[in-house]
Amino acid sequence: MNGRSPQSAIDRIHQRELDELKSLTVHRDLAVAAALDYCVEEGITPPRWVVERAAALLRELLLREKAPDRGRIGNRITRYRNDQRDVERWDAVEEIRRIRKKTEYDAKLRRQYGETSENSRSMYHHERMLEWLRNGTFECASRYLAGREARIGADAMRASHRRCLRRAGTGSFPDRYYVLDQRFLKKLGIPGLQERKRGTKLLPLYNLT
């Protein structure tokens, strides 16, 4: 076709329009939005520069929208962080229940073999863990979140856990609890699920208060 087909001519038109938008030095944010909109309207795949600039623009807009308050009603980032804190609390409760079941089972087996906290270091740690677990599931779950933004009191942990279960229903967790890629969240200033505040010491569970 030697580059003279109708399709190649249309491609050159698309390229010209996008190049003009790419070359703008003022109103660049609008130019990026216009380029992305042009690709949608024309049904073409956006070039890499459009995707990269559009992603950067969206992150910037989300960050600008971030509210200073920590209430449950807020902008997109605030609402997402609140939902993720609920997920952390739900996960902490389930983890404490798993730890309790495993510790009780292991301690029972060790007792059957004659182990005590006096003659077995492992049994000593099991006994300390069982004593700590007597504080209650939600209190222990609260302590488990030491150093994390999601930490709240036992009663609030219970309410947060119930909220997750109510919203999830009988199936898997709804989209609101989907955990986005940590690299993306870091760009928005959202800490990872395992990140703790500076100065937080990592201690055995039974030493957490």
Describe the structure.
62% of the residues lie in helices and 0% in strands. It has 8 helices and no strands. The chain has helices at residues 6-23, 28-42, 48-65, 76-112, 121-133, 137-144, 154-168, 182-187. Helix 4 crosses helix 6, helix 4 crosses helix 7 and helix 6 crosses helix 7 (154-168). The radius of gyration is 27 Å and the shape is elongated. 13% of the residues are buried. The mean pLDDT is 84.
Quote the distance from N terminus to C terminus.
Answer: 76 Å
State which percent range the strand residues make up: under 5%
Major sheet attributes: none
Low-confidence stretches: none
Q: Which radius of gyration do the C-alpha atoms yield?
A: 27 Å
Please report the number of helical segments. 8
Mean pLDDT reading: 84
Task: Write the topology of this structure.
Blueprint: H1 6-23, H2 28-42, H3 48-65, H4 76-112, H5 121-133, H6 137-144, H7 154-168, H8 182-187
Helix pairs in contact: 1-2, 2-3, 4-5, 4-6, 4-7, 6-7
Write a concise keyword list for the protein shown above.
single chain, about 210 residues, mainly alpha, 2 domains, 8 helices, about 0% strand, elongated
